[in-house]
Amino acid sequence: MNIKIFSKINGGLKFLILIIFLYLVCAILNFDLFIVALSRFVELLKEVVPIILIVFIIMFFSNLLLETKKITKYLGHNSGISGFFLSIVFGILSAGPIYMWYPLLADFKEKGMKNSLIATFLYNRAIKIQLLPLMIYYFSLKFTIILSIYMVIFSVINGILVEKSLTYKK
Fold first, then answer.
1. pLDDT tens digits for 70-108?
2. In this predicted model, what pLDDT tens digit does every residue of 102-133 receive, in sequence order?
3. Which residues touch 23 (CB under 8 Å, ≥6 apart)?
4. Would you kindly state where each structural domain of the chain is located, as residue ranges?
């Protein structure tokens, strides 16, 4: 294959080609292992496809309901403290697997969401409301409250550091 052609292919397609190549090598060297790997891939695909469909449906409705101006106003560069507040609240309330949120956050970023708010949102996903009673049971109410407050505070600091490091000019 010509190197110039390969350099023009985007990263996702390169990765797909690599995986297909590895599957073919595996099929040649150990066909039983190839069958096991392929069956596990199909099982994983069955689990992931419904979630991806849900993400696309959410993105479709967010594109219909949330205009770029609204996202920029509440989560953009001039959102201030209210942007951090919304990112904290939505991060804590968010549920489901993390990879389900990446496409939606990427869409929001394209519409003007700040990197600091994305980092804050992702950081606050660690606070799980449904697990707080269990945490209180094992570690005490005082520990749970203090840890949760620290996590919220450090999520904002982390978000600011991410924003500063991504906008740093050389």
1. 777 778 778 889 899 999 998 888 887 888 888 888 988
2. 888 898 888 888 999 999 999 999 998 888 88
3. 34, 37, 38
4. 3-61, 67-166
Four-CA torsion 110, 89, 93, 58, nearest 10 degrees: -20
> Can you give the pTM of this predicted structure?
0.64
> Any idea which residue has 């609204």 for tokens?
70
Closest to 103 measured CA to CA, from 76, 63, 143, 73: 63
Q: What is the residue whose two structure tokens read 């309330």?
A: 93
- Contact call for residues 109 and 118 (beta carbons, < 8 A): yes
**What is the spatial distance between Cα 84 and Cα 152, in angstroms, rounded to a whole number?**
10
CB 110 within 8 A of CB 149: no
**Cα Rg of the chain (Å, integer):** 21
For the cut 90, the answer to whether the pLDDT of residue 58 exceeds it is no
The conformation of residue 96, written as its DSSP 8-state character, comes to S
User: What number of other Cβ atoms are within 10 A of residue 88's Cβ?
Assistant: 22
Whether residue 136 is predicted with pLDDT greater than 70 in this model: the reply is yes
CA dist 129 → 4, 28, 89, 101, 121 (Å):
51, 49, 11, 18, 15
